[in-house]
Amino acid sequence: MRYLLSSAPNLRGNGDQLQFNARLLQYKPLFVCFRKDAAGLALARTLDEGLRRIDTVSVANRALESMGW
Question: For residues 34 and 14, what is the distance between their CA atoms, to the nearest angstrom?
């Protein structure tokens, strides 16, 4: 968003008039593939654990705050 606000002529200088839609418009699933072996299973578990630890609301809020929103 920051890039678009600074590079698109029709958006430049209008950042204070824009806001993100609070309603989720569409769910996009993420698919990650691993080999069917012990190493692949270990990687899948590591990814699952890492994803569970992410506070998505906090990440989004920090990103918006860094853009001055």
Answer: 44
